[in-house]
Each structure stands twice: as structure tokens, then as C-alpha cells.
Amino acid sequence: MKILLINPPNCGRSIPEERFGITSIKQIFRGEPLALEVLAGNLHGHEVAILDLKVEPDALAERLATLRPDLVGITAVTCEANTACHIAAQAKADCGATVVVGGIHASNDPDFFHRDGIDFVVVGLGKGSFRELVDALGRGEKQPDIPGVARVRPGATLRYTPRVFDPRDLVEEMPPRYDLVAANRGHYTLLGLPMGFVASAFGCPFDCNFCCIAGQAGGRYLACSIAAVIRDIELLGAVPFVRLVDANTFGNPEHARALCRAIVAAGIKKDFFGDVRSDTVVRHPALMREWKAAGLRTVVIGFEEISDLGLAQLNKANSVAVNREALAILRDIGISVVGDYIVSPDYDHADFDNLLRYMQDNPVALPIFTVLTPLPGTALHRQMQGRIVNFDLDYYTLSNAVVPTRLPEEEFYRRYAELFHLTHPHAKI
Ligand code: B12
Ligand code: SF4
Asked: What is the strand order of the sheet 271-275 is part of?
């Protein structure tokens, strides 16, 4: 079968830019489409290509015309969901391909893709289930019943058997096909650094109400085997910086320690970036120190809130004191910190002032401010549903307010933009 896997172009719309001419908030990120490389790894025996529209935004029509794929697979985060539907429609119209959509939005809100132009929606980890689907289609099955795969039948309700994910869904013996995007490697930089992506775990054992990661592995936390992670790091070859893309790289501290030791034992000399919770840092400072020696350069921490009440409202299961202590530990070890903070649409001027003061007292190398967004499929979405006024998923970039702001909108976005101006000049990663 000829299979084309498609990464949508950079998309997402910006209210501050469109309504108030504030252009400084919207950021363009570009990194390799690891999900597609991972899926391709388990499609041996088929002719597989990856089209990364973030690198080649105008290549869709030409690539569909030259490859004439039998099957098109599209990945999408929430702000890419509308674009994924447009890509699906074009793939259908231009070459009648079977269209499959997967990724974090499909996993949390599969019903969104229950529409004409799409044939199947893959919910959660797809490396195993997508292969099963391809095999079933290859055998000529029209309505395969595969757990985790929903068949789209417009007019009927979207029905599927939820998949109970386990380590077999990682299909670890098949490495990601980094080679399929080798020509794009020069474009894959993050924070200006040439960066390769490696997955070392999926899902997260926590349950923060705004977070969509639970949908990735059906609420489970699955760590990849040490051997597979080492293999993937080595497959990246000369790329000097490696982002462990897991939502929670240190979710199993013993496993994380074993991985760190294996990196050292393998003689790997790279700079690593990974996500960690602040309470893990505080509970396991020795682990962080060991990782620093193995090359951990920067950690991304979701601090989210600057008060214990705010953290509790997000079900973060953490405290401001722990956040502060983690920063002190990491400063002492010499690991730099990218900190995520959530700005509520309910912020008034005093809240913005407090956040700015907090950032001065607790500086991080690179703060990232997002606007609290009820992502479809999350507990927060169920809580805030009645307040949502903007349902256009193009705006679900985490930098737009989709519920009314307490401050007049323009004032809200001017203060939001100011957070970046006043804190970013100190960035050093
Ligand atoms: C790497 C990354 C990026 C890279 C993306 C590289 C790319 N695809 O081009 C970059 C840096 C570019 C990026 C950008 C953004 N990102 Co991002 N990113 C991530 C991160 C850290 C890892 C994703 C990843 O590679 N995982 C590893 C792969 C193997 O796992 P996976 O994607 O889940 O894939 C599996 C399944 O989902 C499924 N699957 C996935 N796709 C498909 C497709 C098919 C056909 C099938 C069958 C199955 C399938 O099978 C895969 C293998 O089992 C996640 C957080 C996380 N830990 O997941 C955030 C995350 C996905 N990003 C997020 C966001 C918000 C963004 C931005 C909007 C940020 C911004 N404000 O601009 C932009 C969006 C880009 C745009 N269009 O403008 C959110 C998404 C929330 C949401 N519901 O939308 C996440 C979850 C972070 C978070 N916790 O909030 N991101
Ligand atoms: S925000 Fe972080 S800790 Fe909370 S559920 Fe998501 S990935 Fe886990």
C-alpha cells in the first residue's frame, strides 16, 4: 500500500494580532514530526512517505499528485484540527485516498473528526492500532473492528472499542523512521538549537484538569525500555541536542535513573531537554544531579500557578513552596528551567502585577505564559463549557482567551504581551 503521513502546517489564529495588532505573542515552532516517524516505523512492507507541511507549506497538491497514496494519515493538535479536515478533503478529492486522523486532538475529541472526508479516527497511541488497521484494509476488510480505531459513518454515532494500552502498544522493536525526514533535518531547531526528538515515556500518572495528556495512553503511564531509548538517541546521529518529548520524563524515578546511567554507560555525549514536575525535583535531587552529569541541560516545568489555591483549582497536586524549592535545587545543580505559567482570562490588573512580581522573585531562564484554555476532552472543558464563546479550534493555541476576559479584551492582551516583553530579555537556555 502507498501511505502518505502528513504533518499540518503551522496554523492557529491569534486574537491579539487580528483585533489589536499585537504580533509579539504568536510564535512559530518547528520540530520533527515524531508521531509520524514512530508510526512509519511499524509500517514495514509498505511504501511510506512523510510530508511535513511545517517545512514545506505549499507541497500538498504536488505530493498528492506525484505519490497518489492509497492511504493518508494526518496528525493534529487541537489548533490544527480544522486544517487537518481541509487536508483530508483535499486528499480525498485529489486521489480518493482512505483518510485516517490521529494525534492528541483525535485522542481527546474523536467526535470532532466524525465527518465527511475522513474514514477512520485513531484514539490514543497509534503505532500498534494503525498497523492493525492498515493490515485489515490490505485484506479488503471494509469495517474492521480494532480497539482504539473508530470508523467514521456520517449520520451515525461514532462508535469504537476503547483500547486498553499496554507496553505492547509501544512496538518497541521497531525504531522511528528518522530517515524519512532526513532532508528536513536542518529545519528542526528549537530555541535556535538543532534538536532531535526522542520519546522515552507516554501518558502521565497525574490528573491536572486542563491537561490533555491523559488521552494519549488512556490515562496510563508507559515508560519505554532503556534499550529502545538508547537506540533512538543513537539513531539521531550527530544531532547535538535531544528533546525527550514525554509529558513526564521522570514519572518513574527508578526507571529515569536507570536511563540516565545507560546514557553514561553508552558514552552518549548530548545535551538533553526534558519535562519534570517540581515535586519530583524536590523528592529526587540526587536523580537530577545524576542527570545533569549525563547531559541534562534544561528542564521544562509546568509551574502553572503562583498560589496554592490556584494550583488546587487546576488539580495540580503541588504547592508554591515546592515550586520554589525545586527552582533553588535546579539553580544549585546548574540545570536551566523553562517554566510554564497559566494566565486566567479572569486576571485583573492586580493579578498581572502579582505574576510579574512573582517572576522577578522566582526567575527562570525562559518563562512561557499560556492563557487558560478549556481543551476539548479535558475535565476543565467540562467545567467551563457554559462560558466558552469562541468554539473555533483555530484559536485553541493556548494564547487566546476562548471565554470572556474580566479586563476589557484589549487591556487583557496588552498586559499578556507585556509579560513576555518584561521577562524574556533574561532568557538563557
Ligand atoms: C514535540 C511537540 C511539538 C512540536 C511538534 C512537532 C510536529 N509535529 O511538527 C512543536 C514544537 C512544533 C509543537 C508545536 C506546538 N505545540 Co506541541 N507538543 C509537542 C510535545 C512535547 C510532544 C509531541 C510528540 O512528538 N510526542 C511523541 C509522539 C510519538 O506521541 P504522540 O504525538 O502522542 O503520537 C502518538 C499518538 O498520538 C498517535 N498519533 C499521533 N498522530 C497520529 C496520526 C495518525 C494518522 C495516527 C493513526 C495516530 C497518530 O500515535 C502516535 C504514536 O503512538 C507535546 C507534549 C507531549 N508530551 O505529547 C506537545 C503538545 C502536543 N503541543 C501542544 C501545543 C499546544 C502546541 C502549540 C499550539 C504551541 C503553541 N502555542 O504554538 C504548537 C502547535 C503547532 C502549530 N500548528 O502551530 C499541546 C497540545 C494541546 C492540544 N490539545 O492542542 C501539547 C500536548 C503540550 C501540552 N501539554 O499542552 N509541539
Ligand atoms: S500537566 Fe503535567 S503533571 Fe499534569 S497531567 Fe499533564 S503532563 Fe501530567
From this structure: 189-190, 193-198, 241-244, 271-275, 296-304, 336-343, 366-371
Question: Is residue 23 packed enough to be buried (19+ CB in 10 Å), middle (13-18) or exposed (0-12)?
Answer: exposed
Q: What is the pLDDT of residues 60-72, one digit of tens each?
A: 999 999 999 999 9
Size of the chain, expressed as the number of residues it contains: 429
- Of 24, 26, 77, the one to substitute when testing ligand 1's pocket (max ligand atoms within 8 A of C-beta) is 77
The model's pLDDT over 340-375, given as tens digits with 9 standing for 90+, comes to 999 999 999 999 999 999 999 999 999 999 999 999
**CATH for 188-426?**
3.20.20.70
pTM listed for this prediction: 0.97
- In the chain, where does the domain assigned CATH 3.40.50.2300 lie? 2-167
The class (CATH top level) of 2-167 is alpha beta
pLDDT in tens, 72-106: 999 999 999 999 999 999 999 999 999 999 999 99
Closest CA to 171 of 134, 139, 219, 119: 134
For residue 211, the ligand 2 atom closest to its alpha carbon is: 6
**In whole angstroms, what is the distance from residue 35 CA to residue 181 CA?**
12
